[in-house]
Amino acid sequence: MTTGAAEPATWREAFERLRSSGPSCPEEWTALAVAAYLTRPADWDRWCERAFEACVAAGDRPRAARCGFWLGFGLLDAGDGGRGGGWLARAGEALDQAGVDCAERGLLLAPAAVGRLEQGDAAAALELFTEIRHIGDRFGDLDVATVGCLGRAQSLVELGDHDAGLPLLDEAMVAVGTGSLSPPVAGLVLCAAIATCQRILDVVRAREWTSALSRWCDAHPDLVPYRGQCLVHRAQVLRLHGAWPDAVTAADAACAELETAPAAGDAWYERAELHRLAGELDAAEAAYRAASRAGRDPQPGLALLRLAQGDVGAAAGAIRRVRDEAASPVDRARALGPFVEIALAAGDVAGAREAADELARGAGELGAPALLATAASCAGAVRLAEGDAAAAVGDLRRAWRLWSELGAPFEAAQVRLHVAHAYAALGDADGAEMELDAARWVLVELGVPVDAGGRSPDAGPLTPREVEVLRLVARGRTNREAAAEMFISEKTVARHLSNVFAKLGVRSRAAATAWAYEQGVLGPPA
After folding, report:
1. Least confident segment among 93-107, 112-126, 204-218, 288-302
2. Is-contact 68 94, C-beta < 8 A?
3. What one-character-per-residue DSSP string does 255-296 give?
4. Cα separation values, 88 from 109, 136, 396, 499, Å
5. d(CA 136, CA 147)
6. Once rounded to an integer, what is the mean pLDDT over residues 96-107?
């Protein structure tokens, strides 16, 4: 929403000044609309409408179309599809009546391009965004060209071409850094670029650009539309890097800031993840429900919550649906890590192996470091379940190195629990104890509720039969092998294991093994 005038000290001051004096030309009406869009969530649309009408009355239909575009785009983003579509149509009519070729025609292609992308037709979106980029370049309009550049990057990423897409994201971020973009476009680029990187688990770029967004928001303290989304991204980055109290603060602030906005679902989902990882299962359930009410799919976090609650069947059913419904290679790859974890808990080693192999292929193609780390973690966990502890150690050591390089202490600690399991199976009691101690120290530092034995404070006692199941699982037996040794069914083993998880307050075989080792229930290595 270019104004043609120098950016004011604060946009709130600009709005009050222009409202008091009364805009005298289309340029000032556009500046008023920009200021309202950025600072007045309650009635910004009313001021944009007035700016549109004033520009039409003054005969500046391209400028009116630009006001109409941002009005329609903002209403669509707020979930008001009827009014949003109507204003975009009015903006198009204004350009048709003007009968001129101009940069605004590129902007008016953006909603259709975004719609194609959201519908999963990234190839069609790429064509539209490429046209937007060409129009922006032809008219020397950096806002329009950058919108096209950003959309092309997102489309290529969805098509799996990260090598072509990520440099375009970098290019769009360079445009933000020059300070030459209007605030609406700069905020849009920052938030969309970070969301894209979070989606493909490019945590290095996400961390760098979240810092850039935080600095940008701090430099524009009166801008409303992007502050809540910035807090969500900040919480995600802080969680990954183990600053959980700060992540909780950011997520809580995002929930309050966004409230009824569409992005509120992302804020509540992030809050739910923090509750789940900290063992606050009832609070996690409530937050996932809040995310769902706000329009955000609560998966795969909700499936992992069901696993933590001991309902392995519900977890398996949910994560299977998520995997099967994945619309893109990125979505499917993101679902496979939780699928492997849940499949192993359910005793479906063959299913876990198939998913881990697919994840390894996808991670190799997509190349995101966090996805490679997840793939290595899953490969090691599956090898453990298959009884090949020696081979598992290599995968797990690679996973630990990758997570450590990314500065992800929780994920690295979870891997060390698996390493301890492998060492115990190989008869290395000292090595297993060292790995358990290191993992437990990190988890305690993060605030995961464990006592000296690795149990949650309300962990109940295990029955002798549950201890027997746990002892076999801790030695690397699959559910089928444990069932054969105990002369019971696999279903009964799975039920006992679910009870063990629920009583110990853990969500994985490796964590249960850690408890078993600390409590001395493993016995001599098999």
Report:
1. 204-218
2. yes
3. HHHHTTSTTHHHHHHHHHHHHHHTT-HHHHHHHHHHHHHTT-
4. 10, 19, 53, 56
5. 9
6. 90
Name the pTM for this structure.
0.72
Give the separation between CA 165 and CA 196, rounded to whole angstroms: 10
Helices (H), 42-121: 44-57, 61-77, 81-98, 104-107, 110-118
Eight-state DSSP code of residue 355:
H
- How many CB atoms are closer than 10 A to CB 143? 23
Distance in angstroms (rounded) separating the CA atoms of residues 292 and 265: 7
pLDDT of 268 above 50 = yes
Comparing C-alpha atoms, which of 233, 514, 347 is closest to residue 241? Answer: 233
Residue 39 has pLDDT above 90, yes or no: no
Give the CA angle between residues 497, 503, 508 to the nearest 5°: 50
Cα torsion for 443, 447, 450, 451, to the nearest 10°?
Answer: 100
Report whether 272 contacts 266 (CB < 8 A). Answer: no
C-alpha span between 518 and 273 (Å, rounded): 27
Quote the percentage of the chain above a pLDDT of 70.
93
Give the position of tokens 């003054």. Answer: 58
